[in-house]
Amino acid sequence: MNMIPKEKVFSFLKFFEKINNNKKTELCRVYTYTPASGWGVPSKCYDSYCWLEFERREFMAFEDYDTYFRYAYGDNYMDLPEESKCVPHIGVYDLSFGGIFDGGYIN
Q1: Residues 71 and 65: beta-carbon distance below 8 Å
Q2: Cα(68)–Cα(82) distance, integer angstroms
């Protein structure tokens, strides 16, 4: 992959963005994530946002988060698997925000 100039890769992506971002579609995706449905999540999920509390912190989220999670992770997204079957959905095992949540930056 490092033999392909990044300018070529990004110009290719920009070309597709220009063509496709002008159309209103029922489903949409991001480049870095494929939801469980394989096709995308409803575009309406991106229409409005809200603040949700999670583990004593507030985060901006889709107002229709239930629809998003059902498309992204399946209808049983609220059911916890057995601990031995728990695996991350992304390759991040440790994440640091450098203490920004300790300084009142969150709503």
Answers
A1: no
A2: 23
The single-letter code of the amino acid at 97 is F
pTM: 0.52
How far apart are the C-alpha atoms of 1 and 20, rounded to whole Å? 25
Residues 6+ apart with CB under 8 A from 47: 63, 64
Instruction: List C-alpha distances in Å: 3 to 6, 8, 14, 15.
Output: 9, 11, 20, 21
Strand partners, 54: 57
Beta pairing partners, 42:
27
**Can you give the length of the chain in residues?**
107
Considering 40-44, 45-49, 99-103, the range whose residues carry the highest mean pLDDT is 45-49
Q: What are phi and psi of 57, to 5 degrees?
A: -130, 155
Q: CB-hemisphere CA count at 13 Å for 89?
A: 11
State both tokens at 33.
């994530």
